[in-house]
Amino acid sequence: MPVTRQSGGRVRGTPRATLDGPRYPRQMSPEAISMRHVPPFLFVLTLVGLIVPVATRADVPEPDQAFLDEAIPPLRASTQKTTGGPQNIAGAMSGVRELLVERRKVLAELGGKHKLNNLTGIATQDEYDAEVMTSLRKIVQLGAASDTTHPSSVAVQPIEGRLASLPSLGKQPIPFMVLGYSEMAIATGDSMVAQGTSAQLVDHVVLSHIAAATDLAIKEGEDFFGDSAARSLRQELVLARLRCPKDQATYKMNAMKNQIKEDGGISTLYYMQCSKCGDPRVIEFPQELASRLNRMSEQQKQAKPGTPARSQVVEP
Ligand SMILES: [Zn+2]
């Protein structure tokens, strides 16, 4: 009777895996992962640990610095101009509109250079948007300080009601969410003005909502991206926008882990897989990247001396 065996099995006494048997990494003997004794979850961890780093090199999101070096100085200059002179609520509103128009133009240029759903495009947009949000916050804060409109709660209620129907920003939005929200709030306000609501009243309410949205993104005394929950959210939002270069499909996440690199730096690794073609991909977020994106909250701190700095604790 001929010896039959199941695929993946091993015949007792066979010294090594044969061609139709399982293939193991060279340094590992088949006995080392005798599956009968390994709990299923540990086996999955072992597979991830063994296969992914060998199969796929980690990609690190890196912004296009040359693009940012061109796009950011004009943004700062126009913000300087908007916030430099005497303030009023209508001026603040037109400053916000100009800022968002400039952002759309810059993102269109960026989209011509990099796909906005690849790692470089996303990283560049996020850095640029962090700058835009810093500008936005300056403009709305100065506008609010100059706001002499003191409307009754009855007068603002219909506008508040319409803005309340916009999608929620959650507890700690990141800049591109705040900027998207601001555009929706302005569009909602415009449609109310078109229907006869006072523009001054609408500007007052819309600007206060935009100010509140930037407050959510930058909390008093709290690191913007240094906070580990905010950092995870930011990273997950990068991955959610990422598409497979082969088929433009989304990725699903299989596992994540933090690692200490040879140079002592810490990074977070996400093990992804294309939901369509199954191609594996590993994305690495070094903590230095988070620190670099912290620049905005650093600027906020400098603008507000007396805000206590949070202790620099490295999370596990
Ligand atoms: Zn794919």
Q: Summary?
A:
By secondary structure, the protein is α+β, with helices and mostly antiparallel strands.
Distance between the termini: 58 Å
Query: Strands of the largest sheet, in order across it?
Result: 1-4-3-2
Compute the number of helices. Answer: 10
What count of domains describes the coordinates?
A: 3
Largest sheet, described in full? Answer: 4 strands, mixed
Q: How are the SSEs placed, and which strands pair?
A:
Layout: H1 40-55, E1 58-59, H2 65-84, H3 89-113, H4 119-145, H5 153-163, H6 175-194, H7 199-217, H8 228-241, E2 251-260, E3 266-274, E4 280-286, H9 287-293, H10 295-303
Parallel strand pairs: 1-4
Antiparallel strand pairs: 2-3, 3-4
Helix pairs in contact: 2-3, 2-4, 3-4, 3-7, 4-6, 4-7, 5-7, 6-7
The chain binds zinc ion.
Describe the model.
The protein is α+β, with helices and mostly antiparallel strands and about 325 residues long. The chain has 3 domains: about 20-55, no CATH class; about 65-215, no CATH class; about 230-295, Roll (SH3 type barrels), CATH 2.30.30. The protein has 10 helices and 4 strands, in the order H-E-H-H-H-H-H-H-H-E-E-E-H-H. The protein has helices spanning about 40-55, 65-85, 90-115, 120-145, 155-165, 175-195, 200-215, 230-240, 285-295, 295-305; strands at about 60, 250-260, 265-275, 280-285. The protein has a 4-stranded mixed beta sheet, sandwiched between helices. The longest helix is centred in the middle third of the chain and has 27 residues, at about 120-145. The termini are far apart. The model is unreliable at about 1-40, about 40-55 and about 305-315 (pLDDT under 50). Bound molecules: zinc ion. The site of zinc ion has 8 residues, from loops. Zinc ion (ZN) binds near residues 246, 249, 276 and 279.
